[in-house]
């Protein structure tokens, strides 16, 4: 297990779960499962004193070091990370938004490819995470439950025979599992069917959220679909249901795209072309405009309009254009938003330098 | 003198006064002088009967045929032209907006390069026009007054010893001359100095107008500066004053551009780059957006950002993207605005196909 600030090292890598290919990854960018676990006999993080937080970090560090999944990877205490580094990890979806602002002793364990990680002392003692590209909930479940089983050999989890795993927030009690898939749904958005889809998903007991935090519902046309409930169903049941619904959404998204291509070809080409033109030639671009334009570009790549552009480059740009990554790349804190907008535009121009449009 | 519909032939040519080079044509796109003249002993067009209109057309046709300036060129009766052809001529600045909608017998005489023309039975019996690229009021005055002198050998003009030339509208009495220069002023607009400039020009007794008709003040950042008054000053005095003011405006425009390049380079590059990106990759574009984007592109060309693009190509696009030219090019009337917007975008993409940006 390597200690120390991992951020500078991982920033040199592409984001593993974005650079890889996976099933249905034209629409399902990534799948993720998080498990909430707590140690029996220890106060849960929201009620614990700093000394207890610290001792939990030490216990869990030792346990994680013993696991094959993390044997050669990173352990880092959150207080050793700058606010910027924390933000970078959040933008890479390794840690939660809440974890970024933690003041109490907390830590992070993660693999070098970022596919597996454990937040120690987030809302619960442990939040195990596994994330992979494409729609791969089954595979992820196998991986994460193997780690969970191994952990349970070393740790007594807070567990109730009737309720299941006990968690700080009652919404996680039971399986403690949150499975989610990040979907790129420009077709449903452009053909104004997204609200209907969201309502239908809500009725099935699943949640739909924008991926860039509160109030970012439509940014980049990226949506995260996840289970709402952790009680009364097994993990496999939850995953199977989510998987089935996601496959239906993917089917609808594809059919929206085909319909637009047939019936509103110019509208679609215009939408993609303008976004591409702006990304390739702007010198100042906000985060929101960049994410929305990248969404249109990704749609264009998927529809075969840019044979010289790899969809994973676009996926990666979704991460790289965010404020944390921009500043980390520049090697300094940049408070001025316009200055960030200039850097963002330069980064995008550079990444798209060799891209050409195919003949329409 | 060749009779018949000249429009199909001239559309094959580039617009002469836009394709040529001329002094200061980076900012002064073209200069134009119009002279209003009427025949003595004939009712002025607004008061005349159709029979009189017709006889004036015949008289003036014979006179024009005898002039060297028009000896090998076009004569066309307005009623032989479709509404679309008239519009095309207006977009090429050969005829006035009022002339397009004339119902009474009227005609047009013009040279093949479109630099000289006579509207017969517009508001006055004759509106002589000469238009050339760049700032060339002196040269134009020489040409048009030579034609005017020759005409006066064959025609008795309505003339009053005290007032000068008599015209239908009292605002033209005296010299009957309207001299104007079309200026491209994106620098003054972007640095928000245009209104100050317009006020100053107004105080000097000159008029500033957008070039695409009423309420198009800012479209394309193209402005026409002209003399307001036709009484109390000689033609040379009017032209000298206009020339002096135009040279000052050009100086201000250039200094605005240099200041922006020094102090707001990213703002400027962004403005030009985005416009270029949209023009090059849009599949639907309105006339107004096209003109505004072309304005930004023209600024970029002038500032050396596009060595592979000739400024005259941009000048010409200002004409070609307008609705009349688009429809004439397509060979049919197109009532549907979106259909025109699609054609417009395709035309622009084609014209800019081989253009590349220089390294910023």
Structure description:
The structure is a homodimer of 360-residue chains. With 360 residues, chain A is α+β, with helices and mostly antiparallel strands. Chain A has 2 domains: 2-256, Creatine Kinase, Chain A, domain 2; 264-352, no CATH class. Chain A is 46% helix and 16% strand. In chain A, the strands form 2 sheets. A 9-stranded mixed β-sheet of chain A has the order 1-3-4-5-6-2-9-11-10. In chain A, strands 7-8 form a two-stranded antiparallel ribbon. In chain A, a hairpin with a 5-residue loop joins strand 5 and strand 6. Chain A starts with a strand and ends in a 9-residue tail after the last helix. The model of chain A has no long low-confidence stretch (mean pLDDT 91). Chain A binds chain B through residues 266-267, 269-270, 273-274, 276-284, 342, 345, 357, 360, and chain B through 266-267, 269-270, 273-274, 276-284, 342, 345, 357, 360.
Blueprint (SSEs and pairs):
2 copies of one chain form a homodimer.
Chain A: E1 2-3, H1 7-11, H2 16-19, E2 28-37, H3 50-65, E3 74-77, H4 83-91, H5 97-100, E4 107-110, E5 116-120, E6 126-133, H6 137-154, E7 159-160, E8 164-165, E9 177-184, H7 186-190, H8 194-203, E10 206-210, E11 222-227, H9 235-263, H10 265-281, H11 287-302, H12 311-320, H13 323-330, H14 337-351
Parallel strand pairs in A: 1-3
Antiparallel strand pairs in A: 2-6, 2-9, 3-4, 4-5, 5-6, 7-8, 9-11, 10-11
Helix pairs in contact in A: 4-13, 9-10, 10-11, 11-12, 13-14
